[in-house]
Amino acid sequence: MATESRIRLCYMCGSSEDDVAKLHYFPSRLERSKIWQDNMGIHYTEETLQNYRICSRHFTVESYVDLSSHRLTRNAVPTLFPCRQLATYQVQA
Known about the structure:
Blueprint: E1 23-25, H1 30-40, H2 46-49, E2 53-55, E3 64-66, E4 71-72, H3 82-92
Antiparallel strand pairs: 1-2, 3-4
GO molecular function: DNA binding; zinc ion binding
Keywords: DNA-binding, Metal-binding, Zinc, Zinc-finger
Pfam families: THAP (PF05485)
């Protein structure tokens, strides 16, 4: 029986993990997860969020303990959403 492999994608921009972008799980603590969701403009249940990831393109350099390890600081919050800004610009044009 063949095993099914699932490709994980960034919830915000659809990027897959590669040498540049790393995928991060949503925080397991509900209050931290809510902060991320509010910042991203989404609202899902804890169970649903277990299936989603967000890529490193949405975090500032200061969000990382060490860039080479791709480990987020305890208080990191996604704040960069270039794909959202592009979509807004295109609608206004």
